[in-house]
Design goal:
Blueprint: H1 7-17, H2 22-39, H3 57-63, H4 67-75, H5 83-93, H6 108-120, H7 137-148, H8 161-165
Helix pairs in contact: 5-6
């Protein structure tokens, strides 16, 4: 038979039957990510960028960062990632190149140390596994000191002897 309904009822009926499409869900997800980046003043360029993290716990959940590294992050008193850490860590854990700029004291060292240490926990390959180049001895010493706080000194050698001697 024929079913008669008002235009208001028809609109409600149509809206009820429509399920969100994959494209719409992806668009909503991207909008949410962009709002998060804007809220934290994170500016990015590039394609197919990994989503930023909101908590350090996501590193273990999504990226399988070694539990010891996670323990050391908590023990050092880090509770919430800074904006540079929110975006730079996922980018580096995805093996992508990164050029990042942030003010002094914003957490850049931790932002690159976590991905490096995560990489170093993987099976060894021959040759250099990580190299950090610093423009000054003072900055090299700071990076060395901060990096050592996230490794077990008996199991890993974070800084070369030449940095310590010069």
């Amino acid at each position: 038979g024929i079913k008669w309904m008002s235009s208001l009822e028809a609109k409600f009926e149509d809206a009820k039957d429509k399920k969100p499409t994959a494209e719409k869900l992806e668009r909503l997800r991207r909008e949410k990510i962009n709002r998060f980046r804007n809220q934290h003043r994170i500016n990015v360029q590039g394609t197919d960028l990994p989503d930023p993290i909101a908590t350090f716990d996501q590193l273990q959940e999504e990226y399988k960062v070694h539990p010891k590294i996670m323990e050391n992050i908590q023990a050092a008193g880090f509770r919430v990632p800074t904006p540079i850490q929110m975006q730079a860590i996922p980018v580096m854990l995805h093996g992508r190149e990164l050029l990042a700029s942030a003010p002094t004291g914003s957490g850049k060292t931790l932002a690159f140390c976590i991905p490096i240490l995560t990489h170093l926990k993987q099976p060894r390959n021959k040759g250099f596994r990580a190299l950090i180049i610093s423009p000054t001895r003072e900055l090299a010493s700071q990076v060395c000191a901060e990096g050592k706080g996230f490794v077990n000194s008996r199991a890993s050698k974070f800084c070369s002897e030449s940095v310590k001697q010069h």
